[in-house]
Structures are given as structure tokens and as C-alpha cells.
Amino acid sequence: MTFFQKLGRKSQIILLKSSENLLLKGFGDQLELIFFIRHTIQWLLFILKMAGIKIGQLALLLLKMKTII
Asked: Which of these, 46, 64, 41, lies nearest to 7 by C-alpha position?
């Protein structure tokens, strides 16, 4: 596994654990949900930045994948 694959795997585990905890606990209020979503987006942006992928490139990649499928 490359560094980025390991980083992605670790972040997936962290996101899964934090989402499980929030689901088990239940979202006490909307603010917690907003913080969770923000945290998730920040992690994804960090991983993309580490991999050297810009948001525009990601959008193009997703469009290409959609046309393939």
C-alpha cells in the first residue's frame, strides 16, 4: 500500500467510527451534525490535497467515471 492509500484507509476508519458514535448517541442537536459534516469534508479535502488532486480535477474525474458507467 502506498502512503496515500494508508492515509485514505485511516481516514475512512476514523470517519466510520465517528459516524457510528454519532449514530449510536443520536444527534443531540443540529449543531453536532453540522460539525460532523464539516469535519468529514475537511478530512476529504485534506486527503485530496495530500494526493495532489485539485477539486476541479476531481470533478472532471467524477464526470468521466459517470460517463463510463
From this structure: 46
Q: For the chain, how many residues are written?
A: 69
The radius of gyration of the chain from alpha carbons, rounded to an integer in Å, stands at: 15
Count of CA atoms in the C-beta half-sphere (13 A) of 68: 6
Distance CA 59, CA 64 (A): 9
CA–CA dist 13, 7 (Å, integer): 10
18-59 confidence digits (pLDDT tens): 666 665 555 566 667 777 788 888 888 787 777 777 777 777
Instruction: With 0.70 as the threshold, say if the pTM is over it.
Output: no
Copy the grid coordinates of residue 63.
Answer: 464526470
**Every domain of the chain and the residues it spans:** 3-68
Q: What are phi and psi of 43, to 5 degrees?
A: -60, -45
